[in-house]
Amino acid sequence: MNETPPLPRVRAEIDLAAVRHNVRALRDRAPRSQLMAVVKSDAYGHGAVPCARAALEAGATWLGTATPEEAFALREAGIDARIMCWLWTPGGPWRRAVDEGIDVGVSGMWALQEVRAAARAAGRPARVQLKADTGLGRNGCQPADWPELVGAALAAQAEGTVQVTGVWSHFACADEPGHPSIQAQLALFRDMVGHAEKEGLEPEVRHIANSPATLTLPESHFDLVRTGLGVYGVSPAPELGTPAQLGLRPAMTLRASVALVKAVPAGHGVSYGHHHVTEGETRLALIPVGYADGVPRHASGRGPVLVGGAMRTVAGRVAMDQFVVEVGSDPVRAGDEAVLFGPGDAGEPTAEDWARASDTIAYEIVTRIGGRVPRVYLNA
Ligand SMILES: *Cc1c(COP(=O)(O)O)cnc(C)c1O
Predict the structure, then answer these.
(1) 131 in active site
(2) Domain membership flag for residue 188
(3) Tens of pLDDT, residues 286-324
(4) Would you say the CB of residue 207 lies under 6 angstroms from ligand 1?
(5) Which CATH number belongs to the domain containing residue 331 in this structure?
(6) Between the CA atoms of 13, 15, 18 and 19, what dihedral angle is there, to the nearest 10 degrees?
(7) How far is the CA of 38 from the centre of ligand 1 (A)?
(8) Predicted TM-score of the model (pTM)
């Protein structure tokens, strides 16, 4: 007789065929634009290098990261595609970015001055993408400061230290189609690009669209779309539809092994603080994952999990390493599988369900799956 091998405590399966499918689906939505797969924060918890490779195989031509260190890790893995990173602080590793041919987002004069000095030292021009704050109010250059930044970039380009490869911006409310800020940002973006071009910059790529804009707003696609969450098959917002409605396939499935099942009497408190008390005699199943693994403590008493073919709810608090569900008299045993989330087509919850149960967004659910959870890659 074949014995099934025991399940590990927990694992996150990453379906790279789903990643490739999603990249192709997103490219179909923006057929005249290049696609940048955003792989920041370890590809939203999915694993940066395997996901970057899968995205490039499916036609992405750029990779995007927040930090320079994330960009360097891709180069170290031997990836020679165009890579852009945008989250810099003074004294950052500009020289290495120049040496490794990484495009850098520049939002202000201090950054332009630092990258220019690094390029001078390196003896080759830095690839710079000027970021406009068209209304997000986060990173990016304010319209009032734009002429100065564009002028300084032109001067640096003339001296050969900078090549302006892009002009770009980021939306505040693209996940709320029809929000008035969207058209206002688009109009300002066109103005700010227009100014840069009138002054003599010839950016290779102009871009503003994230996943929700790529899915809902063709006029925002310009030369390139920067898609993150969609690459992993997760819906950016419930109002936009489920992944299936958007033509996307969730790539991550989080599975755990039930660690213990035991009978308890009525009136038994469950987990820290006793926020759950059993109503009658029942059985409890211990799921050996907790907030250290990225299961939100906010989902205490609410998070859904598929155990023994039925949907259960987290009973009481999520602890650092474990939580409990009631399984009653169902034939659940230690070593059975618990599925926290996945694509949803085998009856399991989705990342969107966990987002709802923890008052957050699905971005946070997948991205916070912790370093203690091994990733297993399928369909490489
Ligand atoms: C994270 C990020 C993206 C990707 O956003 P998604 O909504 O995940 O597609 C694009 N651009 C910037 C600047 C980002 O920080």
Answers:
(1) no
(2) yes
(3) 999 999 999 999 999 999 999 999 999 999 999 999 999
(4) no
(5) 2.40.37.10
(6) 90
(7) 7
(8) 0.97
